[in-house]
Amino acid sequence: MSDRTSAQPPDPGSMLPDRRLLLPNALRHWAAATPDAVFLEHVDGRRLTYRAASAAAERWAAALRSAGVAPGEHVAYLIADPLDSALVWLGAAAAGNVAVPVNSAYFGRMLAHVLDDSDAVAVVVAAGFLDRLAEVADGLPGLRNVVIVGESDASGTLGQAVVSSGGRLPDSVPEVADAACGVEGDEGEGHEVEGYDTAAILYTSGTTGPSKGVVTPWAAMHGYWSWVPDDTLTTGEALYCPMPLFHISGLGALHYTLSRGGRFVTRDKFSGTAFWDDVRAAGAVAAGLVGPMTALLHSLPARPDDADNPLRGIVLGPMIAEIAAFEARFGVRVATSYGMTEVPPLVVTGWDHGPWQTSGRVRTGYPWAEVRVVDEHDVPVPVGATGELVVRAGAPWALNAGYYKMPEATARAWRNGWFHTGDAFRQDEDSRFYFVDRMKDAIRRRGENISSFEVEAFVLDAPSVAECAAFAVPGSFGGDEVMIAVVPADGDKVDPAVLAQHLADRMPGYMVPRYIDVVEQLPRNTTSLRIQKHVLRERGVTAGTWDRAAESQAARVENPADTRVENRADTRAETS
């Protein structure tokens, strides 16, 4: 049977992580122990010490309290700058609020869905995103407070301005400039959190409906990076993580760095050509990346000084096929794991990761994980057979606490007492687990989970489209690209370029399909008439498929000023 049960904890006192390691508690600890050590650093030169970050967090907590936001209420933030995002998260935690990080690419109905569904009573928004909030504010009756922020300065002070009139938005930022909070936080007064308290509601793509809010306790937040090898980072050392702080990859890395008393170094967006310069300038000994980033780094031309860098190790998920050559070329070690927004990594490796295809073995110790590969009836399958990965933990609050306001979806995911990941795995004779495929209909592009349901909803709103199916096809650097097959309405025609521009004007840039097929009909199951996306995936890109990337490149060559098929939203990665 494919079943692995770890030993139970040695004593009941170890059933929750040490509360001193949890984000707001740890910040106060290190602000007292190493006040002048740098905690937050941006590659543009901004730096905040532990003392400054703690003071800024307490000011944010005081600002939220003065605006009438009570402990336990939900505070959303729509911010691109990683230092500002970090301070807002720390401040919300210090005030005892539940954070709702919002993808900075969201606007329109996706932004409205997250803010409305999460019951956010306050939203902290970067001044540059105020127009996005204004577009949806009338449909958010529960929003009481809007906090507008500018860029943080070297001391961690933000341009705070609070509007406390039923969520009314100002006509312009200067209108509220005089309403700056002007409050002072009292160091040491912050809210102490426990592992069972809710840290955040993290929105992840739905496959049969809109994005779902994952209720994430502090114990689970701690678990996203607590599995990494002990020598990854020590007090005072730097971890480089160019991932956004609305995504669990960035949030988990920040939480881990803080728990270790380290220095968190970041930039607004990942850049392949700047990565090693950033690492060297920061003296970073560890880094957090996702697979496509690593593939891009490996694809760049080799340099004589590739291995001349301070990195000891990279925490990476998922692994790439060229990982052995990558480690040798850059002189680093790599550890990997399998996790998702709902589940901190329970299947992990050390630096001796074994075959590149594996996600590792069941982690030992906290949270005393149990992992199985099961069939459609939740019966464990034989070793070597493929089934769905299901997980649970012996420690309380170590995994998600369900989907916010979605009891049926929560019960379905947690049926029979195990969380169902929706991913197909197999296990070998050496107790290693291998990711095989996604059993659920999701797309993952450049580290972002994309809901095919949400892509299809946008496409079906477009003129002349009768039917649509969105699905994943392989990308150039690992991960997926978004492809759609569309059926025109009777008597109409669909121009892929026009459709792509329609979508680019309405959805986040990372969601806009790269490939478009216009077809007469979609393949369907003869019994249920359900669209057979596996048929579309197997067919993939053909000679007749329209390619947005090729179209954009051709347009730029012909006319450098042509901006067709461009998107107002920023992308999450740069290649140069």
Automatic annotation (TrEMBL):
Gene3D superfamilies: 3.30.300.30, N-terminal domain of ligase-like (3.40.50.12780)
Compositional bias of kind Basic and acidic residues: 559-576
One Pfam family linked to the record: AMP-binding_C
InterPro entries: AMP-bd_C, AMP-bd_C_sf, AMP-binding_CS, AMP-dep_synth/lig_dom, ANL_N_sf, ATP-dep_AMP-bd_enzyme
Region of interest (Disordered), residue spans: 547-576
Top-level taxonomic group: Bacteria
Domain named AMP-binding enzyme C-terminal: residues: 454-526
Domain AMP-dependent synthetase/ligase, first and last residues per copy: 27-393
Gene Ontology MF terms: acid-thiol ligase activity
SUPFAM superfamilies noted in UniProt: Acetyl-CoA synthetase-like
UniProt name for this protein: AMP-binding protein
Natural source organism: Yinghuangia soli
